[in-house]
Amino acid sequence: MDEGRFGVPPAVRDWALALGVAALLVATGLTGEYTGPASGVLGYALLAAGGLALAARRRAPQAVLAVTGLCAVGYQLAGFDVLAVSYLVAVYGAVRAGHRALTAVASVSMLAVLHLTALLFHHGPVGEALAQARHVLEIAWLIAAFAAGEALRQAERRAEEAERTREETARRRADEERLHIARELHDSLTHQISIIKVQAEVAVHVARRRGEQVPEALLAIQEAGREATRELRATLEALRDDHTTPPRGLDHIPELVERAGRAGLEATLTIEGRRPDVPAAVARTAYRIVQEALTNIARHAGAATASVRIDYRPDSLAIQVDDDGKATPDTVPTPGLGLLGMRERVTALGGRLSAQPRSTHGFTVRAELPVERTS
User: Fold this and answer.
1) Beta bridge partners of 308
2) What's the whole-model pTM score?
3) Is residue 81 a contact partner of residue 35, using CB atoms and an 8 Å limit?
4) Which residues, other chains included, contact 75 with Cβ-Cβ below 8 Å and sequence gap of 6+?
5) Given its phi and psi angles, is residue 8 left (phi above 0), alpha (psi -120 to 50 degrees) or beta?
6) C or N: which end of the chain has fewer Cβ atoms within 10 Å?
7) Cross-strand pairs, 321
8) How many helices (H) and strands (E) does the chain have?
9) CB atoms < 10 A from the CB of 161, how many?
10) For residues 339-352, b (16+ Cβ closer than 10 Å) or e, as one string?
């Protein structure tokens, strides 16, 4: 349950307001002028019911508006000349919720019904009947309740718009900074790494053509250049992912598995469950998890096979990547940047991630991402 101001849940505040208004109406009925039958049990019940109905003003403002209006008409018929405080609060709540036209129509109808009821059932001069109707629902109070609800609704809309603007500005600045970093990396590193890679490959090629033994240091430089090129390409791709191009998601996971197979790893993909509408952030995170897991298997695991399992559950998406590599139950996982990035992505979505050796040999990466349902 969400907590409002001062840490008090909205439901508690609604019930406190409802009980307070009910007590006020009943007390006013007890101390005010009463012109009905000797036993006013029904009238007191309607006074209390009108106040207690306000407990549902957030969940069903239109229904509360109708109930409080009927209660006001009812206790007027029962002979109670009490201001319809509960209806005024219901008007405020309905307008705040955005039901302005309905509230205006209901209020005009309410005024007409109160005056008509007073004329038909009040025994006395017409002036006294109209005065009783005005006492039950003063037009000035009605306008004030309507204006207060509209003012707060506009203030909340402006606050939401300001918050949305701040978020969009921060997101745009982050995207601009990310693209700036990508450009800087591309300009400063790509050319130099490419030169190192090309020169190393040429040196290895020349040495082999001459029949000379290639130094281990030169082979290490060649492999490091290839690895740095792949890493830099992946980093630039991630930095340039500004969400304006179609994002990589669940539909692209089969490509990852197929690519791993072409690299010499026997990889399989298993999909279970019925795929629901998955938010883009969840789909993108699932893709990155599988991508990083398969990359780690190819680089470090020394595995022959790998399996990717996607399980669509009613309220979550489960991803599991297993391999039969050299890791054993006694192996202590090294927390590299790839694993750290996966954990940060999953945590940001409120999910859970585990990465640990299997009971026999090999490694398992398991993630569970919550999937929100929209009604």
Assistant:
1) 269, 321
2) 0.47
3) yes
4) 29, 43, 46, 47, 50, 82
5) beta
6) C
7) 308, 365
8) 12, 5
9) 10
10) beebbebbeebebe
